Structures are given as structure tokens and as C-alpha cells.
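Exercise 3.2. Students should predict the tertiary structure of the chain below and write it as C-alpha cells, then compare their answer with the key that follows.

Predict this chain's 3D structure.
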Amino acid sequence: MAAQTSLTVKKLDGTTDIIYDALVASAGDSIPAIWRQDTGQAGGKPTGLRPTFSMAAKWNGPKTARQVLFEYRYPYVTQDSTTTRYSSTDQVVVKTIVTLPQSIPSSELSEATTQALQLCGLSAVRSQTWSGYAFT
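Answer key:
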């Protein structure tokens, strides 16, 4: 297993780096590793109102496949101009489950997951996701 480290992604502008700091490493099956955005646009916000990313892994019921679960939370945060208090009334939540049957060779699992996750990152898929509707 790889050791948990900070993760860096690009903002929508394609230039600015956003760093998700490693907070908690996984303590075993079903226990997520957790990252939080502590710098950049989230730096001045309370820690509980910053974007987070988590990743956990576990066996499926019959133990024929491993499942990797990703969860991303991006709170919509506002600041009251009178009290200067921050609050969040809603958040964007992205959840993904990747099922990896143990009967498939690791080279095929690598290829399948690489293609699937790259498809999710395509600009056409991202922009269609923003609309809240599937392609027609």
C-alpha cells in the first residue's frame, strides 16, 4: 500500500494548484483516508467548512471483489458581513464506487479504472455534469 501524501489538483482555470493536505491515513478496511483543502480559497474558512476528499476500500459481500469508495464534499460557504461568521447552507457531494472483481487480471483492472477515471475528467463530461443533466 502507498503511504498517504498531500494531493494537488488544478482549479477550473487550469493553472492554479489546489492542495489537499493529508489529514488521516486509513486504519484498515472500510476506514477512509481523508484529505482537506487548507490553503488557497479555503484557507480563511473554519476547518469544518472546507472541501474534503476521502478514499476507503473494502471487500464486497461475498469477498469476490474489492470496492474503492471515493467521496468529495465542497461546501458552499458564505460570510455574514455584520457578524463576520461563516456558514454553509449546502454542499456539492460526489460519490464514486469502483468494483474490482478479483477474477480479472490486475493489468485489466488497471486499464479499466484508468479509462473510467479519465472519462470522468474529460471537459465535455465535466461541463455536462455542471448542468445536472446527462447527454441527450
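Discussion points: The chain has two domains: 7-103, 104-136. Strands lie at 7-10, 17-24, 33-37, 52-59, 65-79, 86-101.
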